[in-house]
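User: Some background: our group keeps a shared notebook of sequences we're curious about, and every so often someone picks one and asks for a predicted structure to add to the entry. Today it's my turn. The entry only has the sequence so far, pasted here. Could you supply the structure so I can complete it?
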Amino acid sequence: MNENQLPQQREELEISVVDLVSDLPGVARLVPSFRQVLTATAQRLFGGESRTATGVDIVTEGSAISVYVDLYTDGSRPAGDVVDDVHAGVTSLFRERTGAAADIKVRVIGVALDR
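Assistant: Of course. Here's the predicted structure to add to the notebook entry:
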């Protein structure tokens, strides 16, 4: 996948990552980043095409692809195990869908106490 192809696939990939991560044991919910929320709000304000803030952010810099996933765990499993599963699942998804490797960055915001 090159930089020009990603924008066409970005929304589909984000949805796939959200679905994959949301279904993993131990994940309570995804959390949109501040940048995603701010961007979606600005796009709505100025009448641009607005994408929903998902908690998954795919960023390209040249040929490098980074995937950021921010989430809360539900406390049922060790956070390290959840992060390992997210990393493995997203890595596999990107290789299958794009043929490219991505740098996966998972941030556990905390443990959701409202399970």
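Suggested note for the entry: The longest helix spans residues 79-98. Helices lie at 6-22, 34-45, 79-98.
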